[in-house]
Design a protein that fits this description.
Blueprint: H1 18-21, H2 23-34, H3 40-43, H4 49-53, E1 54-57, E2 60-63, H5 71-83, H6 86-94, E3 121-122, E4 125-126, H7 128-147, E5 160-164, H8 171-179, E6 188-192, H9 197-206, E7 212-217, H10 224-241, H11 246-249, E8 250-254, H12 257-263, E9 270-272, H13 289-295, H14 297-316, H15 323-337, E10 342-347, H16 355-367, E11 385-388, H17 399-404, E12 411-418, H18 424-443, E13 464-471, H19 474-494, H20 506-521, H21 530-542
Parallel strand pairs: 5-6, 5-7, 7-8, 8-9, 10-11, 10-12, 12-13
Antiparallel strand pairs: 1-2, 2-13, 3-4
Helix pairs in contact: 2-5, 7-13, 8-13, 13-14, 14-19, 15-19, 16-19
The chain binds 6-O-phosphono-beta-D-fructofuranose.
6-O-phosphono-beta-D-fructofuranose binds next to loops.
Length: 549
């Protein structure tokens, strides 16, 4: 047996300490001490503060005035950004350099939303013609499905689309399709991700195979959950419509042409992307096909344009006025200096109800790491625990803790000024709640204001960013998502992490394979630890999972 001490450990020396030894970091340590009496209520009584700390882009307002910051503190954070060379890393990403060092890949989701005239190179290839060729294919295909030019195997119009994918091949498109529900086309869109049979079986039972199109969305085309569900769908379709129907009822979105072919999907029904698009950054690539079907290609193009506009802001705005950089620096300020390790995402819009779940993967899979780019253990905290839910529902669940727990949780509140619905009074009530909770978190309530009841004291001083979108249009949504992507990128650079690999999820996958074989064969390996043996014995004794399908 390998003891913890005999397992090869990453080095714990020199450069892992680099960040905390920077002069700007040391300044921030001192600033944190100096800010111990900082009072947000008092700071917000200065009328100029809102204008001084807000930033806007394309009509989207980011209010940073409700943060534990002063001009001097921001200056120290900007110095940190300069010392870790955010501008240099940003330039390297946009130039297609292999900044994903562990996988030796470029990081170019930004290219997926750049105009055709742009020139973005990976090695010597300008990737823009490839990207726009795939976009044209998405456009032609989605338009043809929607206008009925592309028919089912028995000559009918498709009515239902099932996107089978997981992680980045699911969460991004699922969130966007839900968020842009006001732009919905005539198609019924369904998502299947979990290997739990409860996800796909009841859905298939409701669908008419003759009217259903399956999208198999998988960068690798080998992910266990996706391929298990894809084969279940394939079998179901072939049993009901015949093997010859597969070519008309399945499309693939992937980088893996070989596996697509083996599955039986023809080249004209497969949509390619490249390894320089990370899974959790892939909704802009061929993975966005389901978005184009759900809201129409033109809306998908607007989403890309909105994201591109935020890319340009991120690429060109100075550090001092750069929205994603400020979001990232504030996150570092709270995580590393206040030890606030959670981050709440609170959209006051039910259409953004899946926002936190989406950002959770993007952020936590990117920066939830403790080994830095150079293979050293970090000696500082990294990515936050992201959680959230739409307000006002969340006001009646976890907001009690957010207001009064001893440990504050920084939060982002998002709202749209103009709703798509016609219930003006409802929207005014929603906006009032949005304003009330950010205000309550910032200014709190004193004992006196609480009428002498200590249980009703709110400490305040709880930082929030308020984000106001003019309306939930595809372009504004694209810009909002891109801002969060770049925030994650900047934090990864500060913490010296490779934000674009995911070694942490590999171990679970590796261990699941032999365990599945043991369950298939109804046989336990003697070398399993006692807990896993005990659990498996229980499962085998009482479950019917060993029965074959
Ligand atoms: O969770 C690990 C991961 O690799 C994600 O990064 C990715 O989004 C997901 O699995 C799905 O991978 P694929 O698109 O290759 O099926």
């Amino acid at each position: 047996m390998m003891s913890a001490s005999t397992m090869k450990s990453p080095q714990k020396d020199s450069s892992s300490c680099h960040l905390t030894h920077l002069s700007s970091w040391q300044k921030l340590v001192a600033a944190h001490h100096d800010m111990r009496d900082f009072c947000l209520r008092e700071a917000l009584s200065h009328p100029a503060r809102f204008d001084e700390y807000k930033l806007t882009h394309d009509g989207i307002l980011f209010d940073f005035s409700k943060h534990l910051i002063t001009d001097d503190l921001l200056a120290a954070l900007y110095e940190l950004a300069k010392q870790v060379d955010i501008e240099g890393w940003r330039a390297r990403m946009f130039a297609g350099e292999h900044i994903n060092n562990s996988e030796d890949r470029a990081v170019l989701h930004i290219a997926c939303r750049a105009p055709e005239t742009a020139k973005i190179h990976v090695e010597s290839e300008n990737v823009m013609p490839f990207i726009h060729q795939v976009l044209k294919k998405i456009k032609n295909f989605s338009n043809a499905v929607l206008d009925g030019t592309i028919k089912t195997s028995n000559g009918q119009d498709f009515t239902d689309i099932v996107n089978i994918g997981i992680g980045g091949s699911d969460l991004g498109p699922r969130f966007v399709v839900d968020a842009l529900r006001n732009y919905a086309t005539r198609l019924n869109i369904h998502f299947v991700s979990n290997v739990d049979g409860e996800d796909i079986e009841p859905l298939l039972a409701r669908l008419d195979p003759a009217r259903t199109l399956f999208i198999i969305a998988s960068k690798t085309f080998t992910t266990e959950e996706t391929m298990t569900n894809a084969h279940i769908a394939r079998k179901w379709c072939a049993e009901q419509l015949g093997e010859q129907a597969i070519s008309q009822h399945f499309v693939a979105l992937s980088t893996n042409e070989v596996e697509i072919k083996k599955f039986g999907i023809a080249a004209d029904r497969s949509f390619a992307f490249r390894d320089w698009v990370g899974g959790r950054y892939s909704l802009w690539s061929a993975i966005g096909l389901v978005i184009a079907l759900a809201v129409g290609y033109d809306r998908f193009a607007e989403l890309l344009a909105g994201a591109h506009s935020m890319d340009q802001h991120f690429q060109t705005a100075p550090i001092e006025r750069n929205i994603p950089i400020r979001m990232a620096l504030l996150g570092v300020w709270y995580i590393n200096f206040y030890n606030y390790h959670a981050h709440l995402l609170m959209p006051y819009d039910v259409r953004l109800g899946k926002f936190a779940k989406f950002v959770q993967q993007m952020d936590m899979e990117s920066n939830g790491k403790s080994i830095d780019r150079d293979g050293h253990h970090v000696d500082y905290a990294t990515g936050p625990v992201i959680f959230g839910e739409a307000g006002t529902d969340s006001q009646h669940s976890f907001m009690q803790l957010v207001h009064q727990s001893p440990l504050p949780i920084p939060a982002d509140f998002v709202i749209c000024a103009r709703p798509h619905h016609h219930l003006a009074a409802s929207h005014r009530a929603l906006m009032a709640n949005f304003l009330a909770h950010t205000r309550a978190l910032a200014v709190g309530q004193t004992l006196e204001e609480a009428g002498g009841d200590p249980a009703r004291i709110f400490t305040g001083n709880r930082p929030t960013t308020s984000i106001i979108l003019p309306a939930l249009t595809p372009a504004h949504l694209g810009a909002l998502i891109a801002a969060y992507e770049h925030k994650v990128f900047v934090q990864g650079i500060i913490w010296n992490l490779n934000s674009f690999d995911q070694p942490g999820v590999e171990l679970g996958k590796k261990l699941a394979k032999p365990l599945k074989e043991m369950l298939d064969q109804h046989q336990m390996n003697a070398h399993l630890d006692c807990s896993t043996r005990g659990l498996m014995a229980q499962i085998l004794a009482v479950s019917d999972a060993q029965k074959t399908d």
